[in-house]
Amino acid sequence: MNAEINLTNVLLETDRLILREWEENDLNDFFEYASVDGVGQMAGWQPHKSLEESATILKMFIDGRKTFAVVLKENNKAIGSVGIEKLSTEIDGYENMKGREVGYVLSKDYWGQGLMPEAVKAVINYCFETAGCDYLLCSCSPQNTQSARVIEKCGFRFVLEKVRKLTDGSTRAARYHILDKPNR
Ligand SMILES: CC(C)(COP(=O)(O)OP(=O)(O)OC[C@H]1O[C@@H](n2cnc3c(N)ncnc32)[C@H](O)[C@@H]1OP(=O)(O)O)[C@@H](O)C(=O)NCCC(=O)NCCS
Prior knowledge:
Blueprint: E1 12-13, E2 17-21, H1 27-34, H2 51-64, E3 67-72, E4 77-85, E5 99-106, H3 115-129, E6 135-140, H4 145-153, E7 157-165, E8 171-180
Parallel strand pairs: 5-6
Antiparallel strand pairs: 1-2, 2-3, 3-4, 4-5, 6-8, 7-8
Bound molecules: coenzyme A (COA).
């Protein structure tokens, strides 16, 4: 079952990052990375074509209260997002436990610096210590080796592969990984 998530007034800090709720004035930063070819496709969505399109998604982030903006302290820019999404699959043996599924995207300009593992580790800690999750899932397509590395660095283990329906109605294979709350 899904754990309840409400990120109102939640702020997480790591060495290089602040994770906080999205704000309306993040729109330009959001469009800047979400409109770049080869970023969203790896997470199952097409590059944004207009500021209006980004504004619509941004409003969903703000209203949904389950998606962090990843802000780089160095320049105070929103350079990515981490969502604590509803579960897109059940895992045998976990039916009575509370879980969530973590999803993330980072601006192409900042790939390869270990920033997303740093962000996801902070979110994992929040989910287990504060949000009452017993376990977390994270999935990626079999071709997405970059995301697989983040998953690995954050300590998840592979559990199952299945066909997943994306937001645009298309389907593709997804490899699911699980992380148990320590000492539960
Ligand atoms: C997945 C993603 C968030 C990784 O973030 P990150 O902060 O770059 O993560 P890392 O720095 O730990 O790098 C992860 C792997 O990406 C690869 N990588 C690093 N820099 C790269 C670059 N410039 N171009 C392509 N791949 C690169 C490396 O294989 C690296 O693994 P390594 O540390 O063992 O060398 C980022 O690549 C991204 O936003 N991808 C598009 C969206 C996406 O796939 N989201 C997840 C959907 S399941």
